[in-house]
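The material for today's practical consists of a large collection of protein records. Read left to right, the backbone structure tokens trace the chain's path through space. An example says more than a description, so a record of this kind follows:
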Amino acid sequence: MSDAIRLYEFATSPNCQRVKVVLEEKGLAYETVPVDLRKKEQKDPEYLAMNPHGKVPVLVDGDTVLYESCIINEYLEERYPNPSLLPADPSARARIRILIDYGITHTNDSHQAIRAEMMKPEGERDADALAAAKARFLEELQPLERELEGRDYMAGDFSLLDAAHLPRIMRHVQWGVLPDPSLPRLDAWYQRMTARPSVRALG
């Protein structure tokens, strides 16, 4: 392979999409290397040598081999700082990291509960469990809704924060959980996000 950045990915993985948005925003040349999760290719010894947890994505940049999507994006921001996707102020950068952790970690249980039901055939879904999980998830999104007051993006300008949250929000739009009347700013944000070339590049 060439010296271009390589991204080992499963195209519909939210974690991979999170990284691809940042690569596109920074205008970096990269190659994608498909890893078929359905065939358990992420458990192949060659892949486990790069990521012992057997998950996607993995990013290879020269001698640097990284996994975990948010860590990859932090690396890309430091290694390729232009255009910048984090503010210069340390307090503002820390605030972004807090909100990334909140949105990914603290909404994960409700997200996974919704996902578990949506992966079932429609006639086999537990309607009460799905409704309860949706209600929790929508309530957990309220801090992000508040962050968007008077802003186009979650930290003002487009940042790693927006890239971090897009894939999960996108999935819930596909599932019909979003948009929701309780989250009008988040819906407007999503419309702005999906108009960006970096997001359109996801296909």
